Amino acid sequence: MAQRIKKRTYDAYKEAKKARRWDPDRECYLDPEGNICIDPSIIDLETLMKSILTAEEQIKINDANNVDKERLKEESRQRYLRVTRVKNRPPRH
C-alpha cells in the first residue's frame, strides 16, 4: 500500500513538473486540481507506512465510536418508549 502511495505521488509530481505548474507563493508543484505535489524522494517509506497504520487505527476507533453512539441512541429510544407507555397506560381500578 505504501509503495502504491509513493508511486502515485511520484506520478503526480512528475506530471506537475512536466506541465510546469509551479506555485511561487507556496514554492511547490501543483496537480491539475491545485493540490500540492511533493517530491517523492523526500518521502520516507517507513514513515509513510507508520502513518497508514495510524490512519487505519483511527478508522477502527471511529467505527467503534459510531457503533457505541448508535447503541446509546437505541437504548435512549427504548427508555423513552417505556416511560411513554407507562404514562399513557389507563389507571387501574
Topology, pairings included?
Blueprint: H1 2-18, E1 22-23, E2 28-30, E3 36-37, H2 45-88
Antiparallel strand pairs: 1-2, 2-3
Q: Can I get a quick summary?
A:
This protein has 93 residues and is mainly alpha-helical. It is 66% helix and 8% strand.
The gyration radius over C-alpha positions equals 26 Å
Main beta sheet: strand number and arrangement?
3 strands, antiparallel
The percentage of residues in β strands lies in: 5-15%
Please state the average pLDDT score: 80
| Poorly predicted spans | none
Strand order of the largest sheet: 1-2-3
Cα shape? elongated
The domain count comes to: 2
Number of strands: 3
Terminal-residue CA separation: 71 Å
User: Structural class of the secondary elements?
Assistant: mainly alpha
Characterization of the model:
The chain has 93 residues and is mainly alpha-helical. The chain has 2 domains: 1-42, no CATH class; 44-93. The chain contains 2 helices and 3 strands, in the order H-E-E-E-H. It has helices at 2-18, 45-88, and strands at residues 22-23, 28-30, 36-37. Strands 1-2-3 form a 3-stranded antiparallel β-sheet. Strand 1 and strand 2 form a beta hairpin. The longest helix is centred in the last third of the chain and has 44 residues, at 45-88. It is elongated, with a radius of gyration of 26 Å. The N and C termini lie far apart (71 Å). The relative contact order is 0.10. The model has no long low-confidence stretch (mean pLDDT 80).
Protein traits:
93 residues; mainly alpha; 2 domains; 2 helices; 3 strands
